[in-house]
Amino acid sequence: MKDMIKITLSLVVIFIAAGIIMTSVFAITAPVIKVAKEKEEKEARQKMMPDAENITEAGIWEPYGKRGKYFEGKKEGKTIGYLVSTYGKGYSSYINILVSAGKDLKIKSINILGHGETPGLGDEIEKDYFKKQFEDKALEQIELVKAEGTDKIQAISGVTISSRAVTNGVKEAMKLLKEKYGVAQ
Amino acid sequence: MSNTASYWNLFRNGIFGENPVFRLALSLCPAVAVTSGVKNGFLMGVAVLFVQTMANVTTSLLRKFINPKVRIPSYMFIIATWVTVTDLAMAAFARDVYAQMGLYIKLIVAFAIILSRSELFASKNKVVPSFFDGLGMGVGFLLALVIIGFFRELLGKGSLWGIQIIDTKPLLIMILPAGGFFAMGILMGFFNWIDIKFFGGKGASGAGGSHG
Q1: Is B78 on the interface with A (CB under 8 A)?
Q2: Interface pTM (ipTM) of the complex?
């Protein structure tokens, strides 16, 4: 009985001390991280749509239960394209993808904003040769295949789950755009 | 033995005598996962080196206070705290570095080698020797990852540090997980051979499993 109390107490003290350390570090770093992240996201958006004079938030949606935003890019008062921040469920994390599409609802480019996939394997999705495959594709053409030489999206060998996650995330984003903006045309 | 010499021996032990990958065969899962390239191996190694050293020092400082019956959860918490603190501090104050290293830091929580050094060494030794043990183990791990990464990237992708060197992929299997184990096994044998042949070592004792 006495032992039990001693063990519990020893653990409690360590856990509380570690908890305090982690909480204080979190309290100091969280605002800095938030500001830096927002700045990076804004720069990423501008980079994805260099022609747009201003990019305004058009709404919030929920891909795979995560919270993403979508934007309209405008030039001289006219909408020239859309940006969607979307997610795909990868091997060990949710992959955050930014999709840029033109007014014709074809993809201009995609960018991987963040993920926690296996270094050396899953992070191949960040490579240009993979991302470039999405360019100029419409919703119907976004499909993952394992064969070479098709006009679909080709999976990276050994990285099928992460490849599929990106493909699905982009597909969801394009579905959203079609739903919101497709009918009006 | 003078202090300096014994510290040097502790440091050296981590690189040759008890190299985490080639000798203790610990933390092989992450070692296979990240050694598809030299750069990945190097960054992972640096992250492990830091956390290993800090966890060893902290465990050694707290060794009289930690109740032996609950030492493992205590060590886990020390490691988790260091990993979290490093992760957050880097994300806030060194974002360029974090963009490169962020993926690796979080993986370290589950590293068998760090826990095993806390248990086998830091919990029984003073702070300074523990520091050198951690440093040696970290450097040993780093070197092992870089060497494995070198061969896997060169043979599997024909590149080094992401730069294309030869315009073909001689052995694609090397960058896949199975190839990782091939490379590791061959290098492990080579490492033992050199040790026995030139340094009069005994070779690996065959101790230790590969969990984590």
Answers
A1: yes
A2: 0.71
